[in-house]
Amino acid sequence: MEKLISVNGAELCTETFGGADDVPVLLIGNTMLTWPDALCERLAALRRLVVRYDLRDTGRSTAADPEAPAYTLRDLVADAAGLLDALGLERAHVVGAGPGGWIAQLLALDHPGRVATLTLIGTRPTAPGPADPDLPEHAPELMEHFMNPPRVDWADRASVVAFLLENARHMGGRDFDEGEARENIERVHDRTRTGDPSGRFHRADQMGTVFAALDCGARWRERLPEITAPTLVVHGEDDPFFPLGNAEALAAEIPRAELLVLPRTGTGLPRRTWDTVVPALVRHTS
User: Fold this and answer.
1) Is residue 95 a contact partner of residue 27, using CB atoms and an 8 Å limit?
2) Which of 14, 45, 148, 202 could serve as 53's disulfide partner, Cβ 3.0–4.6 Å?
3) What CA dihedral angle connects 60, 62, 64 and 65, to 10 degrees?
């Protein structure tokens, strides 16, 4: 069951799966639905206490204006640490996906005692903006699509879902599953705040656009060798948003990190990857 937990001056909508005595795993994405119910249930069945939550300005957590956030990336890191405090967890196995991977990296760097192991999924070692010269940028075809989007009526569910499904198709890799993507998009849509015809909350919930407006503070890539938590890097072979070279850099620069590449996979963790990813996560968090 979802519940609001007061953390660091915000109300974070949080949900747990599994038993109180199981191994705690904190999942950091964008909304809690970055992590589908069935994936959380599968991990919980393997004796993991799974914690997922909505970041500020997404889902049912504290929200004001995702296009002008009055908090920083480091505040989101403090939120993650504060959530562990609120749940009575001294430390947890931390899994960060996409922009949530930035929060996870900084949690491991700035609060190392709270991170038992670190897993980074589909992310990169630098904040929004131009990539470092040695890292691959977003795929040109993807950026062409984003720069020339089709018209969308943000007040119309069918229009929003069609627009986001086309985005997902561009990001999904060679084995893109349209039915699965539609189901995920519709679930996130139906948890998003209504009554905002500008679509800013839909964009924040579905696309993580708050990070483009966020003050991310000082760089941290040069600090990656300081990470002491055992680290697993998971990345789609076909990811056009954060191409694979970003994962290779993370695995090379974090001491003793392991890299798991998902064949024919783009952005995210489609269901067909779970038979690979879940056993890897269970091993890593054992």
Assistant:
1) yes
2) 14
3) -70
Q: How far is CA 170 from the centre of its chain?
A: 18
Q: What percent of the chain has pLDDT over 70?
A: 100
Q: Which residues pair with 10 in a beta bridge?
A: 7
Give the tokens for residue 234. 């998971």
Is residue 117 within 8 Å of 91, Cβ to Cβ? no
Interatomic CA distance for residues 57 and 10, integer angstroms: 10
Q: Which one, of 97, 96, 119, 48, lies nearest residue 286 by Cα?
A: 48
Element (H, E) at 58: none
pLDDT for position 1: 84
CA angle 68, 74, 77 (to 5 degrees): 115
Q: pLDDT of 3-57, one tens digit each?
A: 999 999 999 999 999 999 999 999 999 999 999 999 999 999 999 999 999 999 9
State the Cα–Cα distance between residues 265 and 243, nearest whole angstrom: 11
Output the furthest CA–CA distance in the chain (Å, rounded).
50
Give me 57's structure tokens.
């300005």
* Cα–Cα distances in angstroms (integers) from residue 42 to residues 15, 89, 257, 275, 276, in the given order: 15, 21, 25, 10, 13
Q: Which of 179, 180, 202, 181 is nearest to 191 (CA)?
A: 202
Q: Which two tokens stand for residue 164?
A: 């986001």
What confidence tier does 172 reach under pLDDT thresholds 50, 70, 90?
very high
d(CA 83, CA 7): 6
Distance separating alpha carbons of residues 250 and 76, to the nearest angstrom: 21
Q: Is 77 exposed, middle or buried (0-12, 13-18, 19+ CB in 10 A)?
A: buried
